[in-house]
Design a protein that fits this description.
The complex is a heterodimer of chains A (329) and B (276). With 329 residues, chain A is mainly alpha-helical. In chain A, 71% of the residues lie in helices and 4% in strands. Chain B has 276 residues and is mainly alpha-helical. Classes of the chains: A mainly alpha (329), B mainly alpha (276). Chain A: Belongs to the binding-protein-dependent transport system permease family. CysTW subfamily.
Chain lengths: 329, 276
């Protein structure tokens, strides 16, 4: 992280200076770098305190909330209860209070994981060739291509999802176009299906996949590719045995970057799934909105967090193995 | 035989050993997929027809309608207010944190500091949203204080890592030569910061501030849950409108919104590009 030390030292070593001058230089550099503990603490405090207080404390609040009883108008009543977690797996019979195992919430989680995985795969299939294409462009063109891919990421997700909705509606451009050419009589129903949600997720998170892939493909040493051709490998073998393994850190980073927001997506299933095709994000939001069951919403959010943490742990384990080969998170 | 194979392999446009069949086409498809929906949205914002998808003729009437819509005006104002406050605070905090993590010798807890600064990026947005809502509801209950301040605080938190990234990157690229020279000339630490470090760092700070501003302006989920009554930001307004009825007015306001983001991000890339 703090690498300036090395550069200054090597620089000092290279320049033809007297030992005394070099020593003095090293001392001022060291003085510059060794800011007092207090200064550093003062500089770090605002950011760290803000995030600790308003970013991390709230997570503990919902952890507590998930073990409480729901209040009648939202909020919580301060009685310990495991009801939120029980409700996740069981349905309580209103007459005799017996618990019956049910899978409706598990299904929402399963569906969300499935959709997020398919979307991740989709972005990988489109994103890998794109990242490779950019990485093999002349250096001065690469920034422009990266800009082109990144720009949609910085534009509003809601607006992009809305744009997608306009296209795949029954009266949308795709159906109008197909009907116009006479390929179909009736509009194909795309909107409010799992397929639509998947398309939306791929569309939303494509840039997240391309960037880390590019970062690792850019470092690819094409002498290895050349060597493989010399050994009579064909293009597919080069791709499978050289390029893809070398890009592995980028592939994993990209998959994580797409999978995590995809799993917790709210806007995409809301607009393109039409409220019928719930994902975890919508389930959580509903508990804090119309259902007014904050403990259950908190529990649902914590279960989502757990899945995300597991995914991150897998990523970090892989990132450690792939260290030195590049890639970023 | 081997020579023939070699000749075939490196014949034609396949001479480039980096060539992979279909990759270029896929890249173009990717760009098409990314831009086609946005392009259609902007195109139809200029459509005179009330229907969002039937093209009749070019017109600016929906832009006029959006401009005169009091609800949109109010929402835009709130969005800008919140984004400005969040940008100022998150950029100042991020700059200080970036100086602390790059301009000092490695210290214990550096990794922890780095993780905390980036924390908002690692938690799914919906979780952040409901956790923030719960926390603020608790504070409201205890203190009775309400208002737009909550929304501003929530935005400041998630803007910090976005402002931090370009500022830290710039600091890491700047070597210490000039700062060292200033120190040699007996400048005091604050003078060095004020006269040398800060001017050199300015492009990074501006870039960070622009990202923070765009990210705050674009936020939907956190605002949706945290915003109190009467604190409708522009994205919340748009979402509500899409849920009710799709009108070309939404296309118009979305297009303006897109234009603003594109302008800011383009400026960001120009500033960042100059760095190298």
């Amino acid at each position: 992280m703090a690498k300036p030390v090395d550069t200054t030292e090597s620089r000092a070593a290279r320049s033809p200076q007297s030992a005394a001058a070099r020593q003095r230089l090293e001392k001022t550099t060291a003085d510059l770098l060794r800011r007092s503990r207090n200064t550093r603490l003062m500089l770090l405090t605002p950011a760290i305190a803000t995030i600790l207080l308003f970013g991390i404390t709230p997570l503990f609040i919902i952890l507590v909330y998930s073990f409480l009883e729901p209040g009648s108008y939202g909020g919580v009543t301060w009685n310990f209860s495991l009801e939120a977690y029980i409700q996740f797996l069981f349905e309580r019979d209103i007459f005799d209070d017996t618990l019956v195992f049910h899978t409706s919430y598990l299904q929402i989680y399963g569906r969300s994981v499935g959709l997020a995985l398919i979307a991740t795969l989709g972005t990988l299939v489109i994103g890998f060739p794109t990242a490779y294409f950019i990485a093999t462009k002349p250096r001065e063109q690469r920034n422009f291509w990266l800009f082109l891919v990144t720009l949609p990421f910085w534009t509003n997700l809601l607006i992009r999802t809305y744009a997608m909705l306009l296209i795949i509606r029954d009266e949308g451009v795709i159906n109008h176009g197909l009907q116009g050419v006479g390929l179909i009589e009736q509009p194909i129903n795309i909107l409010y299906t799992d397929f639509a949600v998947c398309m939306g997720l791929i569309y939303s998170y494509l840039p997240f996949m391309v960037l880390p892939l590019y970062a690792s493909l850019e470092k690819l040493d094409f002498r290895l590719v050349e060597a493989a051709y010399d050994l009579y490998a064909n293009r597919f073998m080069v791709l499978r045995r050289i390029i893809i393994p070398m890009a592995k850190p980028g592939i994993i980073a990209g998959c994580i970057l797409v999978f995590i927001p995809g799993l917790g997506a709210y806007i995409t299933p809301e607009l393109l799934g039409g409220g019928k095709k719930l994902m975890i994000g919508n389930l959580i939001a509903i508990q804090f909105g119309s259902s007014r069951n904050w403990p259950f919403g908190s529990a649902a959010a914590l279960i989502l967090m757990t899945i995300v943490m597991v995914a991150l742990l897998i990523y970090m384990k892989n990132a450690k193995q792939g260290q030195g080969a590049g890639g970023h998170g | 035989m081997a020579d023939l194979k070699q000749a075939l392999r490196f014949g034609g446009r396949q001479k480039d050993l980096r060539y992979q069949p279909g990759f270029t086409q896929m890249a173009w498809l990717c760009i098409f997929v990314l831009y086609a929906p946005i392009f259609m949205l902007v195109l139809y914002s200029f459509n005179d027809n009330r229907s969002v998808t039937l093209w009749t003729e070019f017109s600016l009437r929906w832009y006029m309608a959006a401009y005169e819509n009091a609800g949109i005006q109010r929402a835009a104002l709130i969005s800008v207010e919140v984004a400005l406050v969040a940008t100022v605070f998150s950029t100042i905090f991020a700059t200080m944190a970036a100086l602390a993590t790059t301009r000092t010798a490695p210290f214990k807890g550096q990794a922890a500091a780095y993780t905390i600064v980036n924390q908002p990026l690692m938690v799914p947005e919906i979780v952040t949203a409901i956790a923030t809502l719960s926390f603020f509801a608790l504070i409201k209950q205890l203190t009775g204080v309400s208002g737009i301040g909550y929304l501003m605080v929530a935005h400041t938190v998630f803007c910090i890592p976005f402002a931090y990234m370009p500022i830290r990157a710039r600091l890491e690229d700047m070597d210490l030569t000039l700062e060292r020279a200033a120190a040699d000339l007996y400048a005091k630490p604050f003078q060095i910061f004020r006269r040398v470090t800060l001017p050199l760092l300015m492009p990074g700070i501006v870039a960070g501030a622009m990202l923070a501003f765009v990210v705050s302006l674009d936020d939907v989920i956190i605002s949706l849950l945290v915003a109190g009554p009467g604190e409708t930001t522009l994205p919340i307004y748009i979402l509500g409108q899409i849920r009710r009825e799709i009108t070309p007015e939404i296309n118009a306001i979305s297009s303006v919104f897109l234009l603003i983001s594109v302008l800011f991000v383009t400026l960001f890339f120009i500033i960042e590009g100059k760095r190298k």
